[in-house]
Amino acid sequence: MIIVLTLVEFLCGSLMFSYWLGRIARKDLKSVGDGNPGAFNLWNAAGYKLGLAGVLLDFMKGYLPLVLFIENGVVQGYEIVLIAAAPIVGHAFSPFMKFKGGKAIAVTFGVWSALTRFEVSLAYAIILAILLAISTIIKKGKPVSTEANAFQAVFGMLLVSVYLYLRNFSMPYFCLWFLNLLLLSYTNKSKIAIYLKRKNYHGS
Fold first, then answer.
1. Rounded to a whole number, what is the distance in angstroms from the first to the last CA of the chain?
2. 19: closest CA among 10, 31, 34, 29?
3. Which residues of 99-129 are buried (b: 16+ CB within 10 A; e: fewer)?
4. Residues β-bridged to residue 100
5. d(Cα 153, Cα 104) in Å, to the nearest integer?
6. Residue 37 — very low, low, confident or very high, per pLDDT cuts 50/70/90?
7. What ranges in the chain are assigned the alpha helix state H?
8. Whether 37 contacts 97, CB under 8 Å
């Protein structure tokens, strides 16, 4: 049963709604912006209306199946780890995109919203908002680069572990958090490398 549910979640996560919405709008997300087939590149390429639709759909594919499984008592304990990580993996390595995919930010929010009734996803959003505010202040109001946003997404997820600890979440949640951190680090690795290279250059 765990294998079946994990596969179902993986397939749900692998549905590249944002990329398909982009194609409907005659935008190939792989060849515009940063080439990311996710919701935020759709927003930049095709406008906020389609962007919001992409964010919502990517969120829901992480949220809806998982919350149904949890509310019906289908999964519990360590079973949660693989099943909850599967849609994030599916989005990052979609078979519909030759096992390439997006950054998995929106689907991450969906998964944690389902698991914790929005508690951890809200904490993550607040952490990201604080990091963005700090960056904006440091840059004196200038726009924050996509590379800085990628770094903040991963660093913010790292800080989520502090919240999990303070709120006494059980070990399965820490296991999922660790997998999530690894996945976000992987999907954002190129932008983080550019960001750190720039920081080192300006700091030298």
1. 54
2. 29
3. ebbbbbbbbbbbbbbbbbeeebbebbeebbe
4. 94
5. 10
6. confident
7. 2-14, 17-24, 39-46, 48-71, 79-92, 105-116, 119-138, 146-166, 171-187, 189-203
8. yes
Residue whose C-alpha is closest to residue 195's, from 132, 131, 136, 152: 152
Closest Cα partner for 101 from 187, 189, 191, 10? Answer: 187
Mean pLDDT to the nearest integer, 39-48: 84
The pLDDT value given to residue 204: 44
- What are 94's strand-pairing partners? 100
Mean local confidence (pLDDT), 36-57: 88
**Region at 136 (left for phi over 0; alpha for psi -120 to 50; beta for the rest):** alpha
- Mean pLDDT for 17-32 is 88
Residue type (1 letter), 144: V
Tokens encoding 191: 């932008």
The pLDDT value given to residue 202:
61
Whether pTM > 0.70 for this model: the answer is yes
Single out the residue of 170, 183, 181 nearest to residue 78, CA to CA. 170
